[in-house]
Design brief:
By secondary structure, this protein is of the alpha+beta class. The chain has four helices and eight strands, in the order E-E-H-E-E-H-H-H-E-E-E-E. The protein has one domain: Sandwich (Jelly Rolls). The model has no long low-confidence stretch (mean pLDDT 92).
Length: 166
């Protein structure tokens, strides 16, 4: 097994934390939106040499995942989500009358989207190395819309050792 030096000493290191809220309008009921370049740009602008970036959906019916951006694979993943938590299944959450007056106005029946989001997760945390997002060859970062189209907000936070004074 090959390994590289695990500990890297940074003389007089400055810790930097940067956060950005990104607003996105999705266009379809289920959609994979590639955020990789957007996140890579936030990492560059943060000026962090070594650290981590966290990308988080601020919604319960939209997820953040890492996978390959190959159109037929994304279609397969959409089909898989539908098999895991079918839109037409019986969801107690969709009985808006039973939920009572606390139900938000304009609420849509979306129990399936909540279940799918639970399976996919809300966020990913990724390595920042040498000032860049450290992804594998085929890895891309996606916002997965599960109940669109809607406006969405994604939080991107970069934390780590600064590459120089700012």
């Amino acid at each position: 097994m090959a390994a590289s030096v695990f500990v890297s000493e940074q003389g007089a290191a400055v810790l930097r934390a940067c956060r950005d809220l990104v607003r996105i309008r999705t266009g379809k009921p289920v959609q994979f939106i590639d955020l990789t370049e957007l996140v890579a740009e936030r990492v560059r602008r943060a000026g962090v040499l070594e650290g981590a970036v966290t990308v988080q959906s601020r919604h319960t019916t939209a997820s953040i995942v890492v996978n390959e951006n190959e159109p037929r694979l994304l279609e397969d993943l959409q089909d898989l989500l539908e098999r895991w938590a079918p839109r037409r299944a019986r969801w107690r959450h969709n009985d808006l009358e039973a939920r009572g007056p606390a139900t938000p106005p304009g609420e849509a029946p979306n129990g399936h989207a909540h279940a799918q989001a639970l399976l996919l997760g809300t966020s990913v945390s990724l390595v920042v190395a040498e000032g860049r997002l450290d992804l594998g060859t085929w890895q891309r970062i996606f916002l997965v819309e599960l109940d669109g189209p809607r406006p969405r907000t994604v939080s991107v936070q970069v934390i780590g050792v600064a590459s120089g004074p700012r």
